[in-house]
Amino acid sequence: MKKRILIVDDDSTYLGVIRDWLRDYYKVSMANSGLQAIKWLGKNRVDLILLDHEMPVTSGPQVLEMLRSDEETKSIPVMFLTGKVDKDSVMSVVSLKPEGYFLKN
Prior knowledge:
Layout: E1 3-8, H1 12-22, E2 26-31, H2 34-41, E3 48-51, H3 60-68, E4 78-82, H4 87-94, E5 100-103
Parallel strand pairs: 1-2, 1-3, 3-4, 4-5
Helix pairs in contact: 2-3
């Protein structure tokens, strides 16, 4: 059985690219906002979340804080996929202890 990955990004083109890279090896689901991801996770389980940093309404770090504060989702590994490379952005995410922080470019 394939491991399940949720990709969360507001860029639909990027969602499609990542899905295409991973779908032969994993069961891939997608959410185009942090709130959609939180709602989806209320009914579904995943083995890993790939999370964008900068999204409208709810940022990636805010989503990670919500995930970590909920018993049902706090143990899901989260890796950031982002274009944010400035020190403040990186440090704000690292303090939340994601499993990784990878640059999109």
